[in-house]
Amino acid sequence: MAECHEADQKRWNNLRKVLERAGPFCHPEFEHDSDLLTFILTSCPILIIGAGGLGCELLKDLVLMGFQQIHIIDMDTIDLSNLNRQFLFRRKDIGCSKAEVAAAFINKRVTNCQIIPHFCKIQDKDESFYREFCMIVCGLDSIVARRWINGMLVSLLEYEDGVLKTTSIIPLVDGGTEGFKGNARVILPGMSACVECTLDLYPPQITYPLCTIANTPRLPEHCIEYAKVMLWPKENPFNVPLDGDDPQHTGWIYEKSLERALEFNIPGVTYRLVQGVIKNIIPAVASTNAVIAGICATEVFKIATNCYVPLKNYLVFNDVDGIYTYTYEAEKKENCLVCSQIPQTLTIPDPTKMKLKEIIALFTESSQYQMKSPGLTTMIDGKSKTLYMSAIKSIEERTRKNLNKTLVELDLRDGCEILVADATSPNTMVVRLNYLSADVEMK
Amino acid sequence: MASPPPKSPEQTEKSKKYDRQLRLWGDHGQVLLENAKVCLINATTLGAEILKSLILPGIGAFTIVDGETVTEEDTGSNFFLDYDSVGMPRARVATQSLLELNADVHGDYIDETPEHILSHTQNFFNKFNIVIGTSLPEKVLIPLSKHLWEANVPLIVCRSIGFLGYIRLQVKEHTVIEAHPDNENPDLRLINPWPELKVHLEKTDISKLDNKERSHVPALTILYYFIKKFQEHNNGALPRSRSDKDEIRKMIQESAVCDENGVQILEDNFQEAIHLVNIGINPQIIPTQLKKILEDDCCTHLTQDSSPFWIMCAGLRELVQAEESLPVRGTLPDMASDSGSYIALQQIYQKKALSQSEFVYRRVCQIVTDLGIQQDIISEQEVKLFCKHCSELYVMRGSCIADEYEKNSPDLSVYLEDPDSLMFSYVVLRGLERFLGEYNVYPGHLDDQVEPDVLKLKIITGKLLSEWRCTQILRDERVHEVCRYGGAELHSVSAVLGGIAAHEAIKLLTHQYKPLNNTFIYDAITSSSATYTL
């Protein structure tokens, strides 16, 4: 036992040097001693969200930076196209859970570590699960999931007489990559800019106007969208929704796109492009994931040990032309929907004209909200009333007629609160209506 | 009723596996990668991380040269050396576990020190497309650098220590056809169009179109029409200045017509024409960088050893001399228009591009014949690609690391004026290498030697700076910090450097994207980096 301990100490000699020695550039509150190594080895549980390109790297990096208690969560299974970068997976693992295979690999390779996988959605876990971690690291390709976990961590914050209790903060380190570009950021919920504060950093997805697709195609993408958006629902060739992972489906779209392209003399429809458009594929390589995950893991190490001041708070990386990095401090948004604690108000110029569907359009289209399919409820005379909800079919059918009603027709008064629920957040957002023409006669 | 199963093109296993990267460097880039042989000297954490990011995308083969055995410390930071392998040859263990990453890649190892190989079989390294060295001592680095410089084999040298990283790229000459620039202006040629384009554009009289026709004209046609109008008003003079451009924008704006309700609207395509004014009106000029390439000795004095790149440059040069302009790129940005008008325009651009690349190809064939070299060395397809990307051609000429260390003392004073410059980290790292050479151990390796080693390293860096005739002083803190590391290699820092170095290797092997020129410093304390040309 003692021998094992001694050998283990030797294994971590590199970490011990930076944790047990003082340094001129260290964080002012850095306390160099051997307890720090013990702390990260035994009492600093970390959650990694995503076991894909970044997740695999993060798991390896954090384990070898001394974090031996790690949970990893991912709902995805392994695909052949993952193997060019998700290095914990082999051909035999195709179809298995990413989180489970990654955890098993690391537990086998690295002595004494304890990786616990969760093969599920992040939404399947509740507050009590997330509260257990010292820190959360994200390697995701989904903006919705990022916003959701961000909302979760903000909702875990506790305030005492309006002052944030620092013990309730769970830092979030977030990485993202696309091709040879990437970014890494450190979020201290409630203290620094959160995901929602900087929502405008995410570029809008490319969309093509329907009339171009239908009438005046010019690009190969227009032909593919035509087959996907117009022909598939009409002809319903396999009697199921389009599945980009089904080669028969992709093949069908490819054929129809080619026909369309031939009709208009449009060059450039290839099978690869068809796949890319259907699945909205983002190019990815091993090297960029290694870089971004390495930067994130280094920040986790800094925050956990206090050895250096962590990144403040956003880094961009690009190695298309030479090697470029840039760091800056993203600013907290005064009236952030999620982290500001300021009640949201919605100013309505004329409630006799504003229809419910226009409010919903505002929530989905404005860069400030960018919601997916918000469900709206309110309290009228102490009773809860669903205004509109698309997620559940029966409720959607029952509330659809409300879409064309004006706010006055819906009995919504000046100052009343609307509760907005959406996939982008674990919490319901409360919005207070503020009528400019406040003296509207209610029926 | 279900449709019959479609006859979509068979996708190979490989193209499925590599799909996400083929979208970046294409099948032709992948072929170069799969033919590449890479040598890694020293399977340190950093070395293994670099190879990992090369094996995953599928290089052809690798060889690890390493004379060390696995230590306990290695297993705490190197993912490819597990605890049970302590005491075994590091080259062997690393090769075995790295090979698990990709069944398509071949790998072997030589369980010898690089010193040994350099003194016995120097030409051993010549067979590689690239050599990567980590934690090299000066006594290996300098002869290796000289040898590979002569042999014309690119070398990447890397070091990871504590929170500090260094990457140096040595390549005699490197040429790039596809630089993949982030922003690229479309190549339109509205000023001085070739005859076919001119005839086509002049077929449309914007003032005679009805509202429906108006909304379908491509922005290019609109802009050309108003350039002509501008010339009519200005005695044939071409628009040049900012105010000329403003005038054209105004003309387009004022051409707005009324809809059936009498409301004046400017259609999308007219808005696009206004946006195109800036780039559409600039005369197509040959970039200075390209002029230099076409005037380069390598282009004007071809030999039997000239690379396909330079032979194609010579072919291009003949076209440029004959036509006084570059080949047309042949692609158009999307613009609001009916399908027919857009495609007709696109075909005119494509046809021109094709005829120009055919010209260059014929010249290339002639040159190849004249030089008396193998006919099929350059394919028509390659010439096409070359012409399409001719405005982004790039040539990098590097410097030999041995010269930096021995002959030309680097002039660093400009950088060292800034007290926070990462160039100070370069100085510390050079000091560290000299320390290793003198004492054969990392400064601060032992807990009780940190303070004495700080003094020794301060003396060494002081000497270095005075050798380089730099008057600036290296702050003690920087020396202290590197001694605090005691040679420790931290996994996450090496992971960052490993990814970066691997991508530089991929750039060199695929001849796509512009590589680092030539020294990169990474400071993980502040998450910042800098590039210097030494």
TrEMBL record, chain A:
This protein's pathway: Protein modification; protein neddylation
InterPro entries registered for this protein in UniProt: E2-binding (IPR014929), ThiF/MoeB/HesA (IPR045886), ThiF_NAD_FAD-bd (IPR000594), Ub_act_enz_dom_a_sf (IPR023318), Uba3_N (IPR030468), Ubiquitin-activating_enz (IPR035985), UBQ-activ_enz_E1_Cys_AS (IPR033127)
Signal peptide positions (record): none
GO biological process: protein neddylation
Alphabetized GO MF terms: ATP binding; NEDD8 activating enzyme activity
Entry's Gene Ontology cellular component terms: cytoplasm; nucleus
Ranges for domain E2 binding: 348-436
Function description: Catalytic subunit of the dimeric E1 enzyme, which activates NEDD8.
Name the record gives this protein: NEDD8-activating enzyme E1 catalytic subunit
Species this chain originates from: Henosepilachna vigintioctopunctata
Automatic annotation (TrEMBL), chain B:
Gene Ontology molecular function: NEDD8 activating enzyme activity
UniProt keyword annotation of Magnesium present: no
Biological process per Gene Ontology, one example term: protein neddylation
Metabolic or biological pathway: Protein modification; protein neddylation
Domain named THIF-type NAD/FAD binding fold: residues: 18-528
Keyword Amino-acid biosynthesis: no
InterPro entries cross-referenced by the UniProt entry: APP-BP1, ThiF/MoeB/HesA, ThiF_NAD_FAD-bd, Ubiquitin-activating_enz
Domain of life per record: Eukaryota
Signal peptide bounds: none
CDD domains attached to this UniProt entry: APPBP1_RUB (cd01493)
Keywords: Ubl conjugation pathway
GO CC aspect terms: cytoplasm
Gene3D superfamilies reported in the protein's UniProt record: NAD(P)-binding Rossmann-like Domain
Family: Belongs to the ubiquitin-activating E1 family. ULA1 subfamily.
Family matches, as PANTHER family: NEDD8-ACTIVATING ENZYME E1 REGULATORY SUBUNIT, UBIQUITIN-ACTIVATING ENZYME E1
Protein name: NEDD8-activating enzyme E1 regulatory subunit
Species: Henosepilachna vigintioctopunctata
